[in-house]
From TrEMBL:
Membrane-crossing residue ranges in chain numbering: 7-27, 47-68
Principal subcellular localisation of the protein: membrane
Pfam family, one: TRAM_LAG1_CLN8
Compositional bias (Basic and acidic residues): 102-116
GO molecular function, one term: sphingosine N-acyltransferase activity
Membrane topology: Multi-pass membrane protein
InterPro entries registered for this protein in UniProt: Lag1/Lac1-like, TLC-dom
Stated name of the protein: Longevity-assurance protein
Keywords attached to this entry: Membrane, Transmembrane, Transmembrane helix
Region described as Disordered: 81-116
Domain TLC as annotated: residue spans: 10-73
Record GO biological process: ceramide biosynthetic process
Amino acid sequence: YKLIDLGGSAVFVLFAANWILCRLYWYPCKLLYATIYGAVYLGPQDAPFFPVLGIMLILIYAMNIYWFKFIARMLWRVATTGEEPEDNREWDTSAVTGLSKRSLDAMAENKERKRQ
């Protein structure tokens, strides 16, 4: 079990490093640069669309920075406290549906009874 936890942490560190390299470094260096500066020379017939494309790609870059904030926070918490990150996506269903956990469990139980 300890080896699996260590492997998961190692893969998460590799994921964070890959995010930094590919999404925060290479993406603006290669794709944004090529779209904003180089594409005007390579495809002048499409020049009216480049500002829109550039703005959309910059928005994607801003989202990458925003998501990295969460990745860095998780990485810092795991590195400093040593606690395992918990997956809370499936626990807070009441925020999405507006129903309590008890109501959702009752609905699932009724659905199971109808199947049988």
